[in-house]
Amino acid sequence: MDIPSAITPRDTRHTHTAIIIGTGFAGLGMAVALRKQGIDDFVILEKAHDVGGVWRDNRYPGAACDVPSHLYSFSFFPNANWTRKFAQQHEIFAYLQDCAQRFDLQRHVRFGAEVRAVDYQDKAALWTVTLKDGSALRSQLVVTAMGQLSLPALPRIEGMDRFEGKAFHSAQWDHSFDLAGKRVAVIGTGASAIQFVPAIAYKVTSLTVFQRSPAYILPRPDRPYTAWERLLCKSAPWTMRLRRLAIYVQYESRALAFTRMKWLMTPVGKWPFMRLLERQVSDPAVRRKMVPDDPIGCKRILLSSDYLATFDQPHVQLETDAIQRITPTGVQTHAGQHHGVDAIIYGTGFAATRFLAPLEIRGRQGKKLSDAWALGAKAYMGIMVPEFPNFFMLYGPNTNLGHNSIVYMIETQIAHVVRCLQKMKQSRASTIEVQPAAYQRFTADVQSRFANTVWVGCSSWYVDEQGYNSTTWPGFTLSYRWLARWGSLGAYRFTRTQPTTEGVTP
Ligand code: NAP
Q: Does position 5 have pLDDT exceeding 50, yes or no?
């Protein structure tokens, strides 16, 4: 697509049409969409030195996806070569690298470019993106594609900094440190921990897992694909699309229990969990500690066929007493027990509700996005905020899912952004901005819909300390897609300004 003349580069210093921040699924998908629209003048800024986002960073042992890969992949880039139903991290990472290569995106990426600030210049109707090294780029459009789970969260525990052994977060796994023969403590029992605990248990001398609250866990029906199945996908790609559709329908149907008929969670979630626990953990005292008090689904339901069984190994211990402090040689509980360890692994998750942190984002008249979000992040369609024209967020507020593939959601958002750009072109507008009334209506509606969902009534990474849910979409992905594709664009104001570069910070 030719960008409308009203927003073509307009001075001697180069202004990009678009800047995308991040090279995970969202960033790469957006880049492919821009290329398909004929937009070639864009830059993708990536703080690391390869593409891949969370699938580049989360390299802990056992890292794998908990959504089947034929659905957890782009619809426009199917992969007949998935070797298993639930691909492991290295395969998904390789898939994203292939995607960048196949669509010739590497030439757009500036690696090692960590963004510090993003500022809107009212007069010029341009964004200035400032990098950590002090350099700056200008662009008409900014698309953030930084995910909700890119900022590792470390707990605040007294004495953490005085621990003399090895300590790291699961998203920053130190593979140079050999865990073999070590006494290891794991803090946290979320989606990451349940994958790496069984993967390291066999090699350590002792493993103490500190559980603050247990999670509901269901078996992960993983298996390798046979050579015949892969050949079929390759030679008859429609079978692969059919497989994808079947997985989608199966996963989408789960939204019923999450958002409409909570009682369904008990027969389809809680009972199978109790059976798995009974089968895999022989000690009744340990079993009792592993049964959550929270309603099922409130925290993310986890998938693992071998996590619970790990606690039947004699050198693996479940510690449920609260941690009092970390000492130079181990972890001390409130009950007074000291666990001496050589290494501590924090499986303590991500600062999901700190959207776009630590970027400083300033819109019209220097208005800070962090101020607009003082009471919690929100956005129209999870994508746009008033007074931040031409600023699109992918995987933004209230677009995370508990029941289906986030890649599907991200593709929906990308298509919506493209729809907005096409409308800009038709109307020869230089800016698009969501109208405050539409923003208020939409975000209030999202919040009101939580009342009937499973996500109220417990603490989880979906909600902040005040219980405000800024992360999750409280409905079907189909309803979101319908809105994104067919909903009126009347929520937006398209403006044709005569921009000037006077006073623009280079
Ligand atoms: P998480 O699910 O948020 O789990 C964090 C764990 O750390 C929880 O058990 C939490 O306990 C515990 N914790 C946090 N602070 C603590 C403290 N101060 N003291 C003791 N325990 C503490 O984080 P995650 O496991 O990294 O997973 C985050 C999300 O990433 C997942 O929900 C999922 O969306 C995504 N993920 C996906 C996959 C995949 O297969 N696609 C794999 C891994 C992760 P409480 O429960 O008591 O808060």
A: no
